[in-house]
Amino acid sequence: MPAKDVKAYVKRNKNDAADAAAICEAVRRPTMRFVPVKSAEQQAQLMQHRARDLLMHQRTQLINAMRSHLAELGIIAPQGREGVKELLAIIANEATTHLPNDARASLIVLAAQLQALQTTIAAIEKRITVQHRANEESKRLQTIPGVGVIGASAITATVTNPKIFRSGRDFAAWIGLVPRQMSTGGKPKLGPISKQGDRYLRRILVVGAVSTLRRAKLNPERYPWITRLLARRPFKVVAVALANKMARIAWALLISGKTRRAAWFATA
Questions:
Q1: How far apart are CA 157 and CA 38, in angstroms?
Q2: Amino acid 245: pLDDT
Q3: CA geometry: angle at 47 spanning 2 and 205, to 5°?
Q4: In terms of residue numbers, what domain contains 78?
Q5: Rounded CA gap, 86 and 93, in Å?
Q6: Same domain, 152 and 250
Q7: How many Cα atoms are found within 13 Å in the side-chain-facing hemisphere of 102?
Q8: What pLDDT shows up at residue 263?
Q9: Do residue 148 and residue 258 come from a single domain?
Q10: How far is 159 from 153, CA to CA, in rounded Å?
Q11: What are phi and psi of 61, to 5 degrees?
Q12: pTM, whole model, 2 decimals?
């Protein structure tokens, strides 16, 4: 059971006896929700995703550190991969006169660590790709626009049993891609998304939705529903709405065992 759902039944002080009594009380509630148990294989796959995510954060920190250090010396490069390559070339070039030796020695250490991180991340991604190609459910999820190898593998490793969700909306709500309700006095009021559930899955779906929106701007005739929505709503609002739809389609594919139909993305 989720710990936050049991907390409401804890009386006064928190101790082992009070926790046990609260659990016994909560488990008998008809509306209580239970956390499904993952298999050892799913946990191992998720460990790879978590390790990759941590290493990517560290890679971003190293790149930002190198950029800031070089910016103090008046060396600035464009954003993106090409800019990083340009900075690494400046650090490796010993003929650069406007880079002090002590600064170069420190930056070489950061550059070496960055290269090691990139090699490790590539190795993890290669292993995830191999597991993805051996999983039929993961390959079906990849047919959804905006869901790549990482997203499909993460969903299949996280969702133990899709049948515990009554509908695709329940699955999207579990990820936290539905509006938060703040209704009172019979007046419904919807706010921003709830951001409940798995933060990693939510981020992957939103990032995939942003990528799809950028493609839709280049080929509007291929994504008519998205194009019409972009004409009425801000970019980020459409991105979250599209991520919600991607989550619903993912649930439908997991339940039905079928592949995506093109019509699912052509209409709202």
A1: 8
A2: 92
A3: 70
A4: 40-133
A5: 11
A6: yes
A7: 1
A8: 56
A9: yes
A10: 10
A11: -65, -40
A12: 0.82
